[in-house]
Automatic annotation (TrEMBL):
Identification of the protein by name: Bifunctional ligase/repressor BirA
PANTHER family: BIOTIN PROTEIN LIGASE (PTHR12835), BIOTIN--PROTEIN LIGASE (PTHR12835:SF5)
Family: Belongs to the biotin--protein ligase family.
Swiss-Prot/TrEMBL keywords: ATP-binding, Biotin, DNA-binding, Ligase, Nucleotide-binding, Repressor, Transcription, Transcription regulation
Catalytic activity line of the entry: biotin + L-lysyl-[protein] + ATP = N(6)-biotinyl-L-lysyl-[protein] + AMP + diphosphate + H(+)
Residues of the DNA-binding region: 18-37
Lineage: Bacteria, Bacillati, Bacillota, Clostridia, Lachnospirales
Leading EC class: ligase
Residues binding biotin, per UniProt: S89, T90, N91, Q113, R117, G118, R119, K184
Enzyme Commission designation: 6.3.4.15
Domain BPL/LPL catalytic: 66-255
Species in which this protein is naturally found: Candidatus Copromonas faecavium (nom. illeg.)
Amino acid sequence: MKGEILKLLKETDGYVSGQELCRRFGVSRTAVWKVMNQLKEEGYEIEAVRNRGYALKGSADVLSAEEIMSSIHTEWAGRQVVYFDETDSTNIQARRLAEQKAPHGTLVVADRQNGGRGRRGRGWTSPSGVGIWMSLVLRPKISPASASMLTLVAALSVREGIEKETGLLAGIKWPNDLVLNGKKICGILTEMSTELMEIQYVVPGIGINVNQTEFPDEIKETAASLYLESGKIWKRSGLIAAIMEAFEKNYDIFLETGDMSGLMEEYNQYLVNRGKEVCVLAPQGEYRAMADGINREGSLLVTRADGTREEIISGEVSVRGIYGYV
């Protein structure tokens, strides 16, 4: 009930009477009063006026299942939210829920992770109160070979959601990072479960540095946050909602063809590697090449100095800039 009352307060321009809340939700005035006090304790600014009712005047950067669900306006992405104040990893929890038949679109969010993971087994710093740490359960009807492209779909959607909510123009560093002013603000880790060569579920995990004011010494030269790049504190629930809306749209475009053909032009537009010399870290050795953009399979096309063109698959190699992270 708390989430439904919160959603109604957000959608109402003005006051909602206590009598109307009692009638709509079939509860007593005392129960409504208790919900309002709970919302105030969580950081919401609730104004109560005699003979008028209750109005939501504002809130701090509250993160809870009720706050997230009351912010999201999608058909399936994030319509079911599982929230943790602290957990080991949202990817681990999402995979556990997927094994328990959690529906397509289930969103797992944590205020803090104590075992966050990045690509190639690296750790991911996930402190409380400042970041978005979330994972989405997907059950796509595609071949396992196509699942890695969902990382690119997620990256494109995070970029779009950030721009919509903050106005900041992030770029994509192929295949799974987002950057602002040459520094990393987001990483994406996608995991998959298959059975008899059919996908059981795919879980893209997304970590976004939102309101951090500082970073550990080992990453402070390459990491940034939306706050550090804008000077403004951002509400994480609004960002999550904008990203879910963008992801639902882009995912549906992706499913129409089962590849990146419908999203390729937009992805390449924001690809910070494109047109730059990069260092390709391949198993057979490193080499330099010019990055040309992605193809419809999501591979990065690069051209070597001798004119040889190659397709780089994200699961096999990494790409980094010649003169820095980008």
